[in-house]
Write a structure and sequence with these properties.
- The chain has one helix at about 1-25, and strands at about 30-40, 50-55, 60-65, 75-85, 90-100.
- The chain is α+β, with helices and mostly antiparallel strands.
- The chain has one domain (about 25-100): OB fold (Dihydrolipoamide Acetyltransferase, E2P) (Beta Barrel), CATH 2.40.50.
- Strands 3-2-1-4-5 form a 5-stranded antiparallel β-sheet, with no helix packed on it.
- A hairpin with a 7-residue loop joins strand 4 and strand 5.
- The relative contact order is 0.21.
Length: about 100
């Protein structure tokens, strides 16, 4: 009985470690893309968070929830970092100030 409990604990620990390992964000973005800002809005009750809609070069749009500064305006360019993950959805975030 003790061996089965120990094996179960080890298996559960290995599963939790795997979920933690594969769900964490990389320290650096895998890809950096220059995008155009399309729309801005504050997150209701978001404590400084904003929803920024950006348009990529291929014409697709994505809304990013971020703590980006408030000087962005529609039409400005911004760099977006793409953080690719193995088993989970990729994460997109504004990674720098507006681009000249």
């Amino acid at each position: 009985m003790k061996k089965q409990q120990l094996f179960g604990l080890l298996l559960a620990g290995a599963c939790l470690f795997g979920v933690w390992y594969f769900s964490k964000l990389p320290t650096k973005p895998t890809l950096t893309v220059v995008t155009e800002i399309v729309a801005l809005e504050d997150v209701p009750g978001g404590n400084g968070r904003r929803l920024i809609t950006v348009r990529f070069a291929d014409g697709s749009e994505r809304t990013i929830e971020t703590l980006a500064p408030f000087f962005f305006k529609p039409g400005y360019k911004a760099k977006v970092g793409v953080f690719e993950r193995t088993f989970f959805d990729d994460v997109y975030d504004i990674i720098s100030d507006s681009v000249d």
